[in-house]
Amino acid sequence: MGRVVSGGIRVPRLTCLVSDRDDLTLLTAMADVGVDGFQVRAKKLSGRLLTALAERVVAAVRPAGATVVVNDRLDVALAAGADGVHLGASDLAVAAARRIAPGLVIGSTCRSRADVVAAARDGADYAGIGPVFATASKDGLPDPLGPDAIAPAVGVLPLVAIGGIDAGRVGEVLAAGAHGVAVIGGIWRHPDPVAAAEEIVSQIGG
Predict the structure, then answer these.
(1) Is 44 annotated as contributing to ligand binding?
(2) Is position 91 annotated in a ligand binding site?
(3) What Pfam families does the database record attribute to this sequence (predicted)?
């Protein structure tokens, strides 16, 4: 489904964010219905516990060919055998991460075309753009960009839209030019997370 980047790995069309609070027993089923990316994000865990969590995610979804990235922590991504790392503005610089781990997928949080251009220059494989819509999944976020912010950033790196996205909003952000979406509440807050994931996969199509 995704676009091939570092080491032959693909930038996913649908990334499900995973924390230690989520039901990890559902991950294999999600991968089997077409979720092709998982991002491990659990900011309050120690390095050891985060590594253990990432290892569980990798073991659950890699047989289906899904890509696993770890939020913020390049060291954990390497230790857990993940496919990549996603870096925010206050994390390790993209250029430094690329020097340390030339074969990993590296994503960068961006809010504008200028951010995406800078991320590409420094060696990022994709840009996470958002929050597109208001979301309660993370505290302290900046104001939502809105879907109209996606189109001006298209054409530099694959854009993965995040923030308040569910099955009902996928079409809008893809039509604006996003390569894919990253989803938290739209999957985990649904009564049937696997069914929610499958519906988003169907909205994305091939």
Answers:
(1) no
(2) yes
(3) TMP-TENI
